[in-house]
Amino acid sequence: MKQLTYILTFIISTTFLGCGQTKTTDNKVVYNPISEVQPNDSKETKDEDIFCDTAKIRDFKSNLTSSVQNLTDKEKEYQLNQAQGFIEKSCESDTLFCGEIKFKKSTTYKFDNEWKLLLTGYVLDTETGMEENSASFFVLTILRNNEFWFTDILEDVIGEIQVELNGFEDKHTQVTVWGHAYPYFQPDYGKFRLTVKNGVADYEFQCHAQNLQTKKNAL
């Protein structure tokens, strides 16, 4: 009976030593941290990633050359007319969008000798508290052989928006523009692809936030 008790005691002791401990040749027990359960670090912790689909816009291109230069008188007049037209229509739908617009900044993007793009930002009323690269809205115009080919507005008039253009492609009857847009009060943001075909524009964004407050906190 004594011998059986000794055997059981040895088995139990060996079992406990195998769980997080190691017995040395001097019969000293040392702690073995490797045997501990490690925390799972694979969980995504970046809030902004929960709104983004990385499977979208995998064809993103960066082939535009940008420069901050003065617009020609013709370009300046055209961009301003487009901006004023946009504000007038916005004002008709909501008096909150009525007011004076001011030029903020303009960037010219060149693709080749045939195509170039203008991105001109305007501020509604005041830019107090607005970030340096932000505007109330941007007038995006594509020129072909120095003729105005397409124009659109990227806006967040209630808040502010930052826009950057990165890539361009002219393929048959379709033009594609890639860039980044970060509006404050709009659900779509991040990388985008703008497709223009037969004068019709179609946007696809990589990120979409159902909850704008959560998105703002993430940004």
Keywords:
single chain, globular, Lipoprotein, 20% helix, 3 helices, alpha+beta, five-stranded antiparallel beta sheet, 11 strands, 219 residues
Describe it:
The chain has 219 residues and is an alpha+beta fold. The chain has one domain (58-218). The chain is 20% helix and 39% strand. It is built from 3 helices and 11 strands. It has helices spanning 2-17, 73-93, 212-218; strands at residues 21-23, 29-31, 65-67, 101-110, 115-124, 137-144, 147-155, 161-171, 174-183, 188-197, 200-208. The strands form 3 sheets. Strands 3-4-5-6-7 form a 5-stranded antiparallel β-sheet, covered by helices on one side. A hairpin with a 2-residue loop joins strand 10 and strand 11 (200-208). Residues 1-48 have low confidence and may be disordered.
Any chance you could write out the topology, listing elements then pairs?
Elements (H helix, E strand, L loop, with lengths): L1 H16 L3 E3 L5 E3 L33 E3 L5 H21 L7 E10 L4 E10 L12 E8 L2 E9 L5 E11 L2 E10 L4 E10 L2 E9 L3 H7 L1
Antiparallel strand pairs: 1-2, 3-4, 4-5, 5-6, 6-7, 8-9, 9-10, 10-11
